[in-house]
Write a structure and sequence with these properties.
Blueprint (H helix, E strand, L loop, with lengths): L2 H14 L3 E2 L24 H4 L9 E9 L15 E10 L4 H15 L7 E6 L11 H13 L4 E4 L2 H4 L3 E2 L2 E8 L5 E3 L12 E11 L28 E14 L4 E14 H8 L12 H11 L7 H20 L8 H18 L8 H12 L4 H5 L1 H29 L1 E7 L2 E9 L1 H11 L3 H10 L2 E3 L1 H10 L10 H4 L7 H21 L5 E6 L4 E6 L6 H16 L4 E7 H6 L13 E8 L9 E6 L14 E10 L2 E8 L1
Parallel strand pairs: 1-2, 4-7, 5-7, 13-14
Antiparallel strand pairs: 2-3, 3-11, 4-9, 6-7, 8-9, 9-10, 10-11, 12-13, 15-16, 16-21, 17-18, 18-19, 20-21
Helix pairs in contact: 3-4, 7-10, 8-9, 8-10, 8-12, 9-12, 10-12, 12-13, 13-15, 17-18
The protein binds serine.
Amino acid sequence: MKVKELRATFLSFMEEKGHVIVPSSPLVPENDPTTLFTGSGMQPMLPYLLGQPHPSGKRVADSQKAFRSQDIEEVGDNRHTTFFEMIGNWSFGDYFKEEQITWMWDFLVSKLKLDPENFYLTCFIGNDSLGVPRDTYSAELWQAFFKKKGIDVGIGENPEKDGIRTINGVRDHIFYYSEKKNWWSRTGAPANMPIGEPGGPDTEMFYDFHPELGRSCIPNTPFSGEFCHVNCDCGRFVEIGNNVFMQYKKTAQGFEELPQMNVDHGSGLERICAAVNDDGDVFNIDIFENAKKTIENLSGKAYTGEAQYAFRVILDHIRAATFLISDGVLPGNKDQSYFVRRLIRRAVRFARNLDIHTNFCAEVADSFIQVYKDEYTNLETNKDVILGEITKEEEKFRKTLENGMKEFEKAIIEIHKSVNGETKEIIRHLSGRIAFDLLQSYGFPIELTEELAKERNIIVDREEFEKHKKEHSDQSRTASAGKFKGGLGGDGEMEVKFHTATHLLHQALREVLGEHVLQKGSNITPERLRFDFSHDAKMTDEEKKKVENLINSKIAADLPVTREEVSFEEAKARGAIGLFEDKYSDVVSIYRIGEGTKRGDSNLYSIEFCGGPHVERLGVLGTFKIQKEEAVSAGVRRIKAVLI
Ligand code: SER
């Protein structure tokens, strides 16, 4: 089966079940300070899971582009990719477990003809201290579906210890796990959730790719999994999808039920495709074929044996970089941009293992553009930028790569630990100072240096590296680990205020600087807003003052903020502006500031496409102040502003 066909099959299946199909959101979330990237289908759905009505109703489905930066170094095995498409469906307080599980069985087993013998499920075991009971309902419903097919399956209680049992010929296919595995929120297990964050128990779906396909837990071998179970890391079982029963919200005391019971289902499109083809290597599905051939031609090597690892890194990383750039993230030193840089540099580094020493990334990127351009039209529209940026970054890195590698090899020191003059242990070590020089002079991200070191059994002094980096204060900040620890601070009240202030700023800039100003990006934390917009000159002090005064006069007038759901056509006709037009579906939600209904009405200040949330009246915002105005890239400026 091909990915294209599978995507269409899922969407029409869900459409038949009453879902409205909505387009994918961009890979960079708007107004979500908790994360740098859209890493799952549910992120753009957050306001609707929390109770705000979705403009398309209570049932929606999509195929969402996702990027999981934390998986960069996992790539190379049979199943991990940083970029993937998540096919998903949502019930916003509509249907619940019965429908979801029934449809998943129908879709995977009846429609796609996955062999139920290879199909495994996990459910939440329950936890009294969280006040969340065991999900026997889901476990028994799955079991009943196997039974209908004439297959008796058992439910395992203790898979991490018992492995997969077969008792009197009945094999376990369903397992209970704790909240470490069967709980989902954007920030993981219950203990890691900030107050206000929604989450819930889930039931996960796995496919058994069989040990004979080369995974490590092979029965009757030293690896044999007495304890091999579906969540084992050996790669035999691959998680293909996840149904989250998003019904709780974290409070200071524990959990409370959300006003509505939601379903959040997301499955890996590529992984399901691999399962349907019963091939445990996700890189063997059709969408990689074109790019694989390109790499084979460039390297003269085939996708087999040891070469597979490097092939997979290149395939994954260049595909991810292609999609990220098409959504406006250019390679650079900060935040999202830093990941695009790392992806490209890592691909170039691994290409050396395939003896590719000249520019190749753009050719691979173009192979992906050809494959995806019908579904993701902005790949074709932005093709020149994508290929240009990738090549620029590749060239920049290539200039210093060979020298950096030499420097790296030279700088390794061996420390001999000896007892009574006899060497007992040799520790290979790389100083933090050198790691920092590699970054400064050769553009080696520290993760790259650490990876090279790991391959050679060398320890890098990370602490010393960090010290040097800190000292060098003009060095751009890397995407710090702290960024991911976030969560909706408190109840998100400040973020909501900044979100409304962002609309005011957008409009004020258009009035002061001109109609060419359009939003290019936005990021909000509880402390400040950040707004990128198209404009090619530094703002004068006078212009900044004008913008502030304009915004503060609207706040003083305490204008109302109103949400409306209208057709896309009507929103356009009424002059609504918005960042990513192609993400919107037929019915859209818009926010108006002021009494009027359309752009041009004297008593309307702003009208924008937006999912919200916003304050109800401007009076609560306080005083708006610009802290900084700077360039981000050619033709794009950035403002940081606060409310005091
Ligand atoms: N949010 C869940 C996940 O990402 C299901 O969509 O796994």
